Amino acid sequence: MLIRIRRGWEIPEHQVTPEAVVLNRRAALGLAGGLAAATAATIVRPARGQPQGAAVPPLPPAARNTRYQAERPVTPEPYATAYNNYYEFGSHKGIAAAARRLPLRPWTVRVEGLVEQPREFGLDDLIAAMPIEERIYRLRCVEAWSMVVPWTGFPLAALLDRVRPLAAARYVRFETAAIPGVMPGLRQSWYPWPYIEGCTIEEAANELAFLVVGAYGKPLPPQNGGPLRVHFPWKYGFKSGKSLVRITLTDRRPRSFWETVQGNEYGFWANVNPEVPHPRWSQATERVLGTDERIPTRIFNGYGEFVAHLYVNLQHERLWA
Ligand SMILES: Nc1nc2c(c(=O)[nH]1)N[C@H]1C(S)=C(S)[C@@H](COP(=O)(O)O)O[C@H]1N2
Ligand SMILES: [Mo]
């Protein structure tokens, strides 16, 4: 079978990445104060496309959990793994080759903060200890494109149980890897690295909140956030931080990367809602990655039956962007 992979820059609708537009504008406005200094610093760069680090073991067998139905075809793997947002590797969609420089092993993630038992987990020990399963989830990017991916992973709640959150913990903060020698995007020093995201403890405990270690039955490739990412399928994709290194339970609402960059466009909650437009474009429909289709966007990305109850008493909050 011949599958032609369109490169990010060949997709006419997305010649411009909306999220990048903001930053380029900010840079043009002279907000790039630290840029000169950062470019001057010596950055050791391994050869482009060269995988780094120790070998990644195959995933243990993972049965598909049929409770979660995508109701749409799975996006062909070459599209999902070649059209990515991962700003640490560049503010365009074609970062997959550059991301192969990320060493995926050894990998550890710290889980700490307001917990009884802070711990650092080696990724393979964690995978062996967790209830691994496959879930087919929709992913809706705030840029109005979407895909459907079979992820392998385990509920975020299963990991949090291991460290026993204290009653005072109200939020979960996700910190993702920032490795200057490996990630050329970090030289764009006007961005508030590292990439931070966050959610409430109730959202983290929701059955849909998923820690992902694989896609399409294989270990999660770096461009999709390997070796460990989170996915909240009812929220815009930017809430789902890639390549996690630290998970912190806290009593303060984390301020996320995109909130810091442009808080009027990217808020804390960022639940998918077709009726609430982004300030610069409509969210009513979405382009289906790998097809020429546009389909209506659904509230909570179609996951309202699982998550709508989380927001009933929060109508005063800016829940949708
Ligand atoms: N660390 C980090 N995580 C990130 C991003 C990023 O730039 N850096 N981009 C986000 C955005 S905007 C989206 S839409 C999803 C994209 O995931 P995918 O490449 O697997 O489709 O990752 C999210 N997680
Ligand atoms: Mo996104």
Automatic annotation (TrEMBL):
GO terms for molecular function: oxidoreductase activity. It catalyses: L-methionyl-[protein] + a quinone + H2O = L-methionyl-(S)-S-oxide-[protein] + a quinol; L-methionyl-[protein] + a quinone + H2O = L-methionyl-(R)-S-oxide-[protein] + a quinol. Binds 1 Mo-molybdopterin (Mo-MPT) cofactor per subunit. Keywords: Metal-binding, Molybdenum, Oxidoreductase, Signal. Its EC number is 1.8.5.-. The keyword Isomerase does not apply. HAMAP family: MsrP. Belongs to the MsrP family. NCBIfam families: PRK05363.1 (NF003767). This is Protein-methionine-sulfoxide reductase catalytic subunit MsrP.
